[in-house]
């Protein structure tokens, strides 16, 4: 039984598997393309269409088409189509089902075991939501993997030496941009830090070129206004994409823009394109600079490899600017499929891990390792190396407790109006499973008999103590405290599992009073997942 | 997985088999008959040992040990041979599969090369067709441009791509149509039907697969328009 890697993207998705020669291959969509638009059209109460046709149908049925749902993953967002309620998870599940259906047409095999990739900046909430999307689609989700780690696997830069390695991944896709630093320490792989902009991508470059061509035409024919003609604008969008790709290989390209019997021949040089879009590239470089600085704070002084991921990173200006500005030598290899292929490799690693006994060196373990090695045409040592690899999940955001600022002057006169802030116990990028505390907090009133432990998660891109930069995710009360003057201490301990289950433990030492509660980070509970799976299973899905 | 690509060695000559024990190095037993040197009777069927009385006959213990050693070595040879055959069979199956895939790929390459050209020809046809319609609407002679368009359609036809169109009033079919825009219409019965074809569609003759759907504007029921 093969395992599959899925790059579940904001605008496009892709499915891959490691074939029997041990190489990752991408399986084509129903349209014969490498990728499928992540768009779902609810054609009828029982039938959904995913992909290009769904995207086209949005013009006529905007209320029946869902797109860009990845941006809402894990959030409490609901959609209703033909009276059926949906979540970002259930819509993603439909995209996953179409990918699996198209894959099955090529492999004659039902897709079951999968690894789904997520951006490195996804929090536990979004990661778990993605895992649930896979479960709703009926898959056995072996794991959820950070996209840059998947790319690094495809680039085969993880190395087999004991030395610690650091890799910078620059990922410029169609609609999002992010940079991530990965650390490989022996067999452990972890994301050191990540940064990005989920509203910056190839579409912005296209818009600049379209604007350039349109202006070029109207400058020569000021009496004509082709901007409102849908077919003309569609032609221009196609031309812009072609020009962008062509100028990665050529220095100059001409394009004839025609409308209403008039023509304008417009030339765009590579230099011109770079100048036109310099502000966009600069934004990615500023984010890269920030990422490098953060990595430096975490002790990363140099990078062993710099990888370019995402179709847009193939522009020569990207590698050149990274070299000129930061002295980085970037590698470019199959950038738009690297994530899906790396996910397939990781899926295989996970499957090998599950199917092999712990000990692959002797007895039955060695035989099983040999079998896998034969199947894949790789050495037993490579299989053993695969099994030993461990990709660490980190807490991408900080978690803490809401406290009253007793140093706020207002506190003395009106404690209820005094400033509240978040005291973080678990900080971003802590490897999971993680323990934090015991941290000591104090009561604010004399004879305070109860303390409300409000747990908050960082909501913005940076850790901040301000309430508005955090989200309230759960609470529990520490009750029956012994009568004591204000300032009596009590402790709080956090423990977060790899699956995002946050266990909170509050205790008062003298009385032994304690409270324990758990918060599952990740929107839907098991019953909701089952219900969504039933709802999704009844649809006929096509591409 | 390290940087050496898996399966890189699959085309190495299988005969090399380094490390196999050379058969000539094995201890050869004496030809036929009993070799333990015991003083038992010798039957007629058994060939006489042609032993030189000057040559010492190996002792039973020595021969036994030699046989044991031999058996062990033979066992290893058999094991290694079996392993060799197993790996060879795997290599063969990989080669078979690669061959099969290579055949498919050759067909795919033709398409991969042709696809962008077809897409460009379709775009060129679209633009010519639009100009032809504009000239016709203005009452001008469009025949020259129209002839170029027809030539392009024929080139596409030779590539196995046929054009198809739609008629105003045809209901929306997501397999055949790509809506470019909507046109408000007070007649509910015309909702989501073709109002105007902007560009014809193209499909593969052999498979029927739509390469570019008909681009059209569609009516959308809007009361009071």
Describe this structure in words.
The complex is a heterodimer of chains A (543) and B (225). In chain A, strands 1, 2, 3, 4, 10 and 11 form a 6-stranded mixed sheet that branches. In chain A, strands 18-17-12-13-14-19 form a 6-stranded mixed sheet, sandwiched between helices. With 543 residues, chain A is of the alpha+beta class. The mean pLDDT of chain A is 89. Chain A contains 14 helices and 30 strands. Chain A is 34% helix and 32% strand. In chain B, a hairpin with a 5-residue loop joins strand 4 (201-204) and strand 5 (210-212). Chain B is of the alpha+beta class. The radius of gyration of chain B is 41 Å and the shape is elongated. Chain B has helices at 60-137, 143-158, and strands at 161-164, 177-185, 194-199, 201-204, 210-212, 214-221. In chain B, helix 1 (60-137) runs antiparallel to helix 2. At the A-B interface, helix 1, helix 6 and helix 12 of A face helix 1, strand 2 and strand 6 of B.
Helix and strand arrangement:
The complex is a heterodimer of chains A (543) and B (225).
Chain A: E1 3-8, E2 12-18, E3 24-27, E4 36-37, E5 39-44, E6 47-50, H1 52-57, E7 65-67, E8 79-81, E9 84-86, H2 88-107, E10 113-118, H3 124-136, E11 140-146, H4 147-155, E12 165-172, E13 177-185, E14 188-197, H5 202-220, H6 230-249, E15 252-259, E16 262-269, H7 270-276, H8 278-297, E17 305-309, H9 316-326, E18 330-332, H10 338-355, H11 363-376, H12 380-388, E19 390-391, E20 394-395, E21 399-404, H13 410-413, E22 420-426, E23 430-431, E24 434-442, E25 451-458, E26 470-478, E27 489-496, E28 501-507, E29 514-520, H14 526-537, E30 540-542
Parallel strand pairs in A: 1-10, 6-30, 10-11, 12-17, 14-19, 17-18
Antiparallel strand pairs in A: 1-2, 2-3, 2-4, 5-6, 5-7, 8-9, 12-13, 13-14, 15-16, 20-23, 21-22, 21-25, 24-27, 25-26, 27-28, 28-29
Helix pairs in contact in A: 2-3, 2-14, 3-14, 4-10, 5-6, 10-12, 11-12
Chain B: H1 60-137, H2 143-158, E1 161-164, E2 177-185, E3 194-199, E4 201-204, E5 210-212, E6 214-221
Parallel strand pairs in B: 2-6
Antiparallel strand pairs in B: 1-4, 3-6, 4-5
Helix pairs in contact in B: 1-2
